[in-house]
Amino acid sequence: MASAPAQQPTLTVEQTRVVLSEVIQAFSAPENIARMEEARESACNDMGKMLQLVLPVATQIQQEVIKAYGFNNEGEGVLKFARLVKMYETQDPEIAAMSVKLKSLLLPPLSTPPIGGAIPSS
């Protein structure tokens, strides 16, 4: 007999706020700050290297928190949690704000060219 697929955790808006807050706090832990800084330095602002080096570290940090709430300890658990957060973003301004904060922790700041920074013609 085939085993039933693993049950996907379902969290309420309140529970999602708590988990999201814990995930954000995890990125503030000194050891995780060091892990993220090391990965960012190794990536040297190269977006391809960011995906190879920074994203896995960020995923591991999130997994360490969300596994306590029934999400699997693989990348799939982080994706399911991200989908849950996305669903609640439109319903809850606090979750929307925390989601923006989490994204700012994960994504490097984008450098924009200065206004009027056109290349001078010769």
UniProtKB/TrEMBL annotation:
Protein location: Cytoplasm
Biological process GO terms, please?
post-embryonic development
InterPro entries in the record, alphabetically?
Answer: P_C10
GO terms under cellular component: cytoplasm
What keywords are assigned to this protein?
Cytoplasm
| Organism superkingdom | Eukaryota
The similarity comment for this entry is: Belongs to the UPF0456 family.
Q: What is this protein called?
A: Protein C10
Q: Which organism is this protein's natural source?
A: Liparis tanakae
